[in-house]
């Protein structure tokens, strides 16, 4: 299974979802491929935000090698599931879908809730990490 994690900048939330899920996928011996992208292009080519790198590093996960990329409509055919962090990401990604089948690949990462954007509030990085970690565990239980 190929899963794409999407947020706005691809430097705070989706790199955490990408790194945490990739870590758990390895731990569980799954053959899933994980990547991430953003709907905005400001940070394309940049490493994740230092605060995301640190919160992950403190918990044994290295996301420093990731580089931000812009969501490309070609991703609809290359990924099985596209998991978005908030409702604006959902609108932005779905607006690029060319068919109902492509739209159906897109869901909120938390199903019925959003992952808050920690970019403007450094205190949010630990709770956001924990929220993403617990959802990744659940997704592995549900889909593995
Ligand atoms: P992310 O957070 O979508 O979780 O990567 C953001 C990063 C950068 C910006 C906004 C949100 N920005 O406006 O540059």
Automatic annotation (TrEMBL):
SUPFAM superfamilies named in the record: Phosphotyrosine protein phosphatases I
Hydrolase in keyword set: yes
CDD domains cross-referenced by the UniProt entry: LMWPTP (cd16343)
Source organism, top-level taxon: Bacteria
Residues of the Phosphotyrosine protein phosphatase I domain: 1-142
Keyword set, alphabetical order: Hydrolase, Protein phosphatase
Organism: Sphingobacterium daejeonense
Family label: Belongs to the low molecular weight phosphotyrosine protein phosphatase family.
Protein name in the entry: protein-tyrosine-phosphatase
A Pfam family matched in the record: LMWPc
EC number annotated for this UniProt entry: 3.1.3.48
Molecular function terms, GO-annotated: protein tyrosine phosphatase activity
